[in-house]
């Protein structure tokens, strides 16, 4: 048994429980597979609270993934393409993922090849800043490509 205000040693269960009750604390089994099993005298509710607090802190420090979307039409002109390309590069440099998609409206769905060519051209243009996570894929009226930022060179 281990704990605060307790001599480290081997105690019978009844004596360990008495020591815990005497200090108004709980007897918690830490490692049951050890020989003999290791127990600790602690305030269990405080222990649980501290663990929750640590988990929350770890979760808050975890990086949040931001996905920015860039929309094209199957007949997007070069100027619009370059304008959206600059925005995509800025997003990638900030560390956000980019989902570029071609939205087919009405009968433009017959230009699937044009949309795929546009997305591949886009992926090639941002190749220096991003790696392709998912190649162009058609879902309903949208064909999209996922790009994630490359690790910055420092």
Description of the structure:
- The chain is of the alpha/beta class.
- It folds into two domains: about 60 residues, Translation initiation factor 3 (IF-3), N-terminal domain (Ubiquitin-like (UB roll)), CATH 3.10.20; about 80 residues, 2-Layer Sandwich (Translation Initiation Factor IF3), CATH 3.30.110.
- A four-stranded mixed β-sheet has the order 4-5-7-6, with helices on one face. The chain has a three-stranded mixed β-sheet with strand order 1-3-2.
- β4, α3 and β5 form a beta-alpha-beta unit.
- The longest helix has 18 residues.
- The chain is rod-shaped, with a radius of gyration of 29 Å.
- It starts with a strand and ends in a 5-residue tail after the last strand.
- The mean pLDDT is about 85.
Short summary:
The chain has about 150 residues and is an alpha/beta fold. The protein has 4 helices and 7 strands, in the order E-H-E-E-H-E-H-E-H-E-E.
The low-confidence parts are none
Give the CA-based shape: rod-shaped
End-to-end distance, in Å? 50 Å
Tell me the quaternary state. Answer: single chain
The CATH topology of the largest domain: Translation Initiation Factor IF3
Task: Give the C-alpha Rg.
Answer: 29 Å
Strand content: 25-35%
Helix content: 25-40%
The strand line-up of the biggest sheet is 4-5-7-6
